[in-house]
Methyltransferase domain-containing protein
Amino acid sequence: MARQLEEQIVARFPVGKRLRVLDVGMGRGAQALRLARAGHQVTGVEQDAASIAAVREAFAGEPEGIRERMRIIEGQAGDTGVHFLPGSFDVVLCHGVLMDDVEEPDALLAGVARMLAPGGMLSLLVRNGDAAAMRAGLSGDWAGALAAFCPPTASYGLKRLTSTLAGIGAPLHTWYGVRVFTDTAADDSVPPDDLDAVLAVEDRAGRTDPYRGVAALLHLCGVRG
């Protein structure tokens, strides 16, 4: 996903431009740190105290110039309008926020999109509602796979997301699949010796039909007109 995000930023913005980035639900700050290292001004919003502590610890070991480019706000993803004026950011990340049980997800996305300046980009990562049965089926959990064929009404597939992004003023520009072949790997798995090859295959599959359509996650990039 980091490769995909970098690809879109490089294609959309002038080389060397210091972007204003908002990372909504920043988690442990992997993307925020990478973008701050690249020279961008990054603001992260996170409500989990343990995640915030992890981000602060990660940034503590960085040079002062990088630390100065990072700001952390403790708050919920739906409260962006409380903290920022509309149009304040060139890039907004909303990664994994809608994977949990979120009330009024479309309203949350609309609030996040309002933070985009004209021409700004929204990077959205969600579970792929069109392929909800894949992980359980590939793991041999047949009961779970059958249940997944009837996903909750809040689940997002490509068609719904395309409509939602258009409705909130950030129409879909491009999309990728994430974790096409590796979704069944345990969270605590030791990285394989051929990790570069794995990443190369995932990167290729995530941008190639029909593989990206059955990925565990969808990464969509919408652009504010």
